[in-house]
Amino acid sequence: MLDVRDYWNFGDPVATRAMFEELLPSLKDRQEQLDVHAQIARTYSLSGANQECLECMKPVWDEGLALGGRAAASLMIEAGRAYRGLGMIEQAQQGFEEVSVSGPEDLRVDALHMLALISEGDHVEFYTQKAISLAKTSKDEWARRWIGSLYNNMGWHCFEAGELEDALEYFESALLARYEFGQDDRVHEAKWCIGHTLLALDRIKDATDLHLEMGGAGDTEEEVRRTFSN
Question: In terms of Cα–Cα distance, which of 226, 158, 163, 157 is closest to 195?
């Protein structure tokens, strides 16, 4: 079965679009074709072209929703991202909520994550914790691979609320998850979040030790603060 994640380069949406457009004619399964349509649409929203994203999905929208399954969930979640980019939060929320209940588990986690991003106050934690619970118990590897990002998001939610000890715990959990799932490209980010929080807690020695562990050339407080403040 086609896994669209094998074709994604999030750093280059235009090249990714070209790859999906080249792939599309070779596909025979309609679910896979419509999933690829949704990914092509996403390449537009990632570039800030949210209206183009919605226009891209229009010709297949009704068919995709009637077909159901992964195709429908992918179309709804990408429409939701585009609506969010356009500031149309109510429309975005409707799609995300539907996918969070009825979609495949990895997209349910993604939808809950998106619901947290468009929410405020206690709803941010509510949706993020629901996503964490689903990701931790899922048998779908791609759903589980969300755990590091979700812990990171909870860390920042706590940090911004002034709950620094809780933030540190979430950031440390995010780092462990990055190691667990081999997400080496996110390890430095996870360590930086920990260092930033240690500084906020005035734990200079711990921040200095982490700085040296990360390859810092010096151990002066000024350098440590510069590293974890930028």
Answer: 226
Side chain identity at residue 52, one-letter code: E
> Within a 10 A sphere around the Cβ of 140, how many other Cβ atoms?
16
What digits encode the pLDDT tens for the residues 142-183?
999 999 999 999 999 999 999 999 999 999 999 999 999 999
pTM for this prediction: 0.92
Q: Compute CA distances 1 → 5, 6, 61, 70, whole Å.
A: 12, 11, 22, 12
Domains of the chain: 1-131 (1.25.40.10), 145-230 (1.25.40)
Q: Are 141 and 160 in contact (CB under 8 A)?
A: no
CA distance 171 to 187: 11
Token output for 120 = 């405020």
Residue 228 in contact with residue 208, Cβ under 8 Å?
no
Length of the chain: 230
What DSSP designation does 162 have?
Answer: T
